[in-house]
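Run: sequence + DP6 -> complex structure.
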Amino acid sequence: MENGRASTKPISQVTCTAPVNIAVIKYWGKRDEQLVLPINPSLSVTLSQDQLCTRTTVAASVDFKRDRIWLNGQEQSIDTPRLQKCLGEIRRLARKRKHEEERSGDLLGCCVHICSENNFPTAAGLASSAAGYACLVQSLARLFGIDGDVSHIARQGSGSACRSMYGGFVEWTMGRAEDGSDSVAKQVAPAEHWPELRVLVVVVNAGKKAVGSTEGMQTTVRTSALVAYRAEHVVPSRQDDMKRAVLDRDFQAFGEITMRDSNQFHATCLDTYPPIFYLNETSKQIIHLVHRYNRHHGKVKAAYTFDAGPNAVLYLLQDDVPEVLALLKHFFPANANNDSERTFVRGLPDVCRKDV
Ligand code: DP6
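>> structure
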């Protein structure tokens, strides 16, 4: 329906879901704001489809008078530069295809309606924009019949979104091309490669973050000497070490690098002027708890990482989930009796959520 009139023409419609990804080597800083090109490569783990994810339906019809978008039931402006960029790039690619099918040729003249829902708090530092743009670009690509990698388009919606285009362990390469065409996401290993790996999402605060990632990293790049050092001297070798840890399923190395990289990312936030604080007291207590737990066992059994917010994501192996959940309940008893703790048994990595 548009303007209350029933449509007489057929609608083409596609629905996709895309999960969030949680970086273990963080992206923080762009070398090109327009093309969304990062100052360092990054690596993440994509959660499984049925957990923290976005579901997007895109429809095209000749009856639609203009492009429109709804996010969690609320209509939003379609005129944001990033949305326009993704829509424009998809349409450009669809037009460029050599042997256009009848269907996509027809659709090229149509406006689209986009409906997107998150099953988790939006903009709370739980990678909502990553899942959102990955899902949008994936759905549009399918609607317009575009095959092949479109992670370079998702990247222009939100940098970290390019990594949610693939499952399992995914790297985002820096690339060298001026047009950014080789700054893309690539799968390092599929999810099945490490079936025992688990993710525990510890929701410290589900509210909207004070400083968004885009703005935060701009200020960091402009004012922090540490972030330039990190990009040039730390991340390149760390990225290689992390890939090796993943391929070898070496949890000791994986966990230690994950924690070191999260800490260094937050150190660059502190080195930003004026400083940015994403971690709160509860986040810091979780960090201490994980180190005490690991020290007690004489090895890395759990690893924390924090994005642009206070919520902790813990990586651990399946056998240790009950013990770590019990520890969290013991040390953060406030919400111990609530029912928001969810454990999932399918997919990989499985997510347990604990609100503290
Ligand atoms: C801390 O991808 O949200 O989660 O490209 O400006 O949209 P934009 O930023 P965004 O930044 C994510 C930053 C991070 C680390 C990461 O996911 O690698």
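>> summary
Confidence is low (pLDDT under 50) at residues 1-7, 336-350. The longest strand covers residues 53-61.
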